[in-house]
Amino acid sequence: SHTTDDLIFDWEEDVPLVVSDDIELPQLDLIKTEKKDCTQHYSTVLFFAGNFTCLKLTFTLKRRLGYYMFHTYIPTCLIVIMSWVSFWIRPEAVPARVTLGVTSLLTLSTQHAKSLDSLPPVSYIKAIDIFMATCTVFVFLSLMEFALVNVILEECFTMKLKQRITRKKFEESIKDVEVQNDILVINMEKKSSAISRQVKRRKIWALRIDQVSRVIFP
């Protein structure tokens, strides 16, 4: 390279930079340009290397959000909202709620992979990564919410089944007895009533979780 004694770069005073109007980037807008003189001075303890001429030009670009808004952000938000529809579906409709949640999660993963294809690969976390991760967490939590509701209802079904089996065994045990034991019948009715109240309470809990989720998730 040459020092400033041999070569000097300098910006033209009248028109230092000309940007053609025909040049247009599909996803970026040119906001401004900055020109600087970055002439460097190099020297060491032993000798003086000299000054080396340098010019610096900075382009400030702004990404157009229209493309990403209609192809990434809006479809992704709709997928997340679609997963919340499961809160309005009856808890007993297990196939419908599971299918809706899993489909939303898989569609979201495909949408994330598609959005990464249009961006250059980098080693740091981008804003789109944080947005997609947040949406994925919301969809996953909606699946976990249904899992909790399903566990509560499954316990209700188990308690009902045990109640029916116990009542059937009790009726068979007193069928051949000539004199019916009123005390046993009363105890059995009290036990059945307690189980029914417990089953009803658990159903209310399950429905209450869905009702709370309808407010918290949005």
TrEMBL record:
One of its GO terms (cellular component) is plasma membrane. It is a multi-pass membrane protein. Keywords: Cell membrane, Ion channel, Ion transport, Membrane, Receptor, Transmembrane, Transmembrane helix, Transport. Its main location: membrane. It is found in: Cell membrane; Membrane. The chain crosses the membrane at residues 65-89, 130-153. The keyword Signal does not apply. Residues 72-177 form the Neurotransmitter-gated ion-channel transmembrane domain. One of its GO terms (molecular function) is extracellular ligand-gated monoatomic ion channel activity. Pfam families: Neur_chan_memb. This is Glycine receptor subunit alpha-3. It comes from Caerostris extrusa (Bark spider). The gene is GLRA3.
